[in-house]
Amino acid sequence: MSLQPADTYAAFLLLHILHYDAAGLEPQTSILLLLTELDEARKTAVLGELVEIGAIRSDNGKWRITDYGEKINKDFSARSFHGD
Predict the structure, then answer these.
(1) What are the tens digits of pLDDT across the range 7-53?
(2) Which residues of 6-43 are buried (b: 16+ CB within 10 A; e: fewer)?
């Protein structure tokens, strides 16, 4: 299944959650709720795309954000929350 435009936003939300997880913080509940509305096929497509571009990796069954994923998350957050 290919990604749809709305999936791009879901991918960035997932990176944000993994960033929080790596820092030992809890993500905002509103972000988690947005992702729970995706069906399994969409979640699989988003995860597959993030793995393919090297933004996340699986580590003993747990998803981890990579350095590249951190860079994407930082760039997206700066544009989204600061209007750049």
Answers:
(1) 888 888 899 899 999 999 888 888 888 788 888 888 888 999 999 99
(2) ebeebbbbbbbbbbbeeeeeebeeeeeeebeebeeebe
Q: 5-82 has which CATH code? A: 1.10.10.10
Question: In which band, very low, low, confident or very high, does the pLDDT at 80 lie, cut at 50, 70 and 90?
Answer: low
Using CA atoms, how far residue 81 sits from 23, 29, 73, 75, 84, in Å, is 19, 17, 12, 10, 8
Q: Give SS3 for 73.
A: helix
Q: Among residues 16, 3, 14, which one has the least CA distance to residue 42?
A: 3
**How far apart are the C-alpha atoms of 60 and 40, rounded to whole Å?**
21
